[in-house]
Structures are given as C-alpha cells and as structure tokens.
Amino acid sequence: MNMTEMMTSFNRSVSFKRSTSLGRRAPSVTSPRVRRLSWVSRKFHVLVVIGSLISFIIAIGCGYLFLLPSFSQAFHDYDTSKFNGTFSSCNVFDGSWVQDDSYPLYNATECPFVEQGFNCLGNGRNDKDYLRWRWKPKTCDILRFNVRNILEKFRSKRVVFVGDSMSRTQWESLICLLMTGVENKKSVYEMNGNKITKQIRFLGVRFSSFNFTIEFFRSVFLVQQGWMPKHAPKRVKSTLKLDKLDNISTHWINSDVLIFNTGQWWVPGKLFETGCYFQVGNSLMLGMPILTAFRTALGTWASWVEKNINTNRTQVFFRTFEPSHWGDQTRRICNVTQNPLSEARGRDQSLFSDTVLEVVKNMKVPITVLHITAMSALRSDAHVGNWSDSPFTPDCSHWCLPGVPDVWNEIILSYLLTD
Questions:
Q1: Topology versus the membrane, per the UniProt entry (predicted)?
Q2: How many CA atoms lie within 13 A of 267 on its CB side?
Q3: Which fold has domain 99-220+249-272+292-416?
Q4: Quick check: is 398 catalytic?
Q5: Catalytic, out of 38, 41, 96, 165
C-alpha cells in the first residue's frame, strides 16, 4: 500500500468513526470492512511513531557529532571562543597568587636546559611551597593549555627571546614547559651543541619533531656597546650608543614570536662604576641620567621594530621590569620567604616599566606589553636565594625554575592561543 492509499484509508476511517458517534449507537458486531480499516489505522500510527523516533535519534546523533569537537576542546584547552572575550577584555596582570596543587608544570631535574644555578630543589632547597602558586587575574583566567596543541601551533616557527639573564631564564622555562609534551626528549637539542652559560650571546634549541626553534640572544641593553671614543676622559672605558640597536639585531628579524626585555643592567654599578657612559652619534653624553638614556634607547628600539619587523607575521612582546627582593641597598641580605608577600611594599612600581608603557603606547605597530612588575613583586618566596650553584653568593634577583617565569610564559601562550 503506498502513502496515498494509506492516507485515503485513514480519512475514510476517521469519517466512519464520526458518523457512528453522531448517529445511533453502532451495532455490537463490527463488519469485516471496519476491522480492516481499524487495522490499517493502527499500522499507520505505528509507522508514524517509528519514523518520529528514528528522526529524533538522527537529530541527536548529528548534534553530538557537531558539538563533540567543541566539548573536546573545552575539556583539553578550555573553550577558546568563550575565552577570547574574557581574556582580551580583562587586565590579566591585575590579580593574586592562589595555591594550586597542579603546579609545578615540569621537573627541572628532568629538563636538560635549566641552568644548574636555577634548579633550587636540585641545589638543596627543602620547602616546596613556592612551586604551588598560580596567578589568578581578577576578571578572567589564564588559559591552561594542552602542550601538544602548543607544539603544533609552533610547528615550523621561530620563537625568539632578546634580553638579559632574566630573558634567558624565561627562555629555559618555555623549553622545559614544551618538552613535557615531547615523547623523544633527544629530539630536542641545542642547535650548535652549546652548553648554557651566562655569557654566550646566542643559544637556540630545536624541536626537531615539530621543526621549530626557541632562540635566545643576549642583549642586556638592546643598544650597541662600543669602545672608548677618541679624546674621551679617562673615566670613560666604553659607551652605550643609544641611537643604534645591537649589532646582532638582524638575527631577530623573520621570527614568528619576538619577546624583548631589558632593565636589570641599567644601574650605576653596571654602567658608570665600570666606566660605561652614554653616546648619541659622535657625542658623549656624560651628564645624561640613566632613565633618560633608557628612554632614548627604547625610542631607538621602537623605530627599529617599526622599520624592520612585519607585525602581520611576527607577534612582538615586551616584558617589563622584574623586581628583586634584596634586604638592603648593598644587596648583601637576601631574605627568601616561605610564602608570597601579602603586599608589594613599593616594588610594584618601576620607572623602567612606566617608560616601556609610554614608548609602546606611541608606537605605530601593535606591541603586547607583559606588565609583570606588580605580580612578580609579591613573589619574595620564589628567588634563588642561597640555592644556586654558588651557595655563598645569595641571589634575590633571579628566580627558581620551576617558578615565576613559567607564569610569564603561560600568559604569552594565552595571548597566542586567543589571538
């Protein structure tokens, strides 16, 4: 029976039932024709129910297949479409440190790229509380990333760090974070076979399985250092050429992620007391204050970025000044606390950081400032202290690994994932 015949029979059945209900009571014995129509009606209802059930199952299945990738992504990486709005609209650097037993994110002893001097546990530190703190912004969350997804995102890319030893520490941190997702650890190696040292100007680690590199260029001032000019006073041993970027800057071009920092060396002990003064063009600037020189150097950096970096390809970051926690001006007392500070005690402010914000604000190309000064000011518990490879030389400037630099990298990865 086709559908047309079935509908005709159904209409006849309905018409018959109406006539019997409106007229006199139907006979007690039903005719064969009535029994046949009733059977057809019941059969049709059964087919309708089965058809509806099948349609419902198909709809549910399609919906599940459509939504499954989103659920999977939300499970592994959070829902980045939802995360985009909250992260980009909040101040990720305004928050607090909260305890989190899922930290640390790696074991420094198992990572061959952590300097021995930063592996505090390996150097005898007994308390582990400093490892279990997570940064929680007030109005959003830092993305908890899937390492394999990051490795794929970096496939065939160049990630470049430029700066001082703080930059090198962050470079080591990122390598160790990503190595947790690599099965064959030997496939990750320093490109020139170099051992990580404090003075070497270039270090590059290659993740061969994913064809990308994470590189570090040591440039503590970002601008060029030169020899003593002719006819300079005897106290001048060298100069900083504030109008010329470091002569290794050509190697920073054509990177995909470029992360700068400077600040720790812009102090009298690293400059004037060593005979290093400032120079612009051929002129010595013997009376120029350090902060003015820093502002001039950053202007040179900004002009270089605008001229040489294709920001359609390269995402540029500048990390602000990292506060230290020395007990006095002579830097002889290093009191590493067991827990973070409840207040910054003035270390959350830095004229160097303010200058970075000012310069970047006036640039013509997009730069992301990692304003980590205030958040790092609370972490008096996370410094190397006496747990370095030189235990008789306390260190309240550098950070233990794992530790605070991991959070700086988590913030960078959050920007990259939600961009």
A1: Single-pass membrane protein
A2: 8
A3: Rossmann fold (3.40.50)
A4: yes
A5: 165
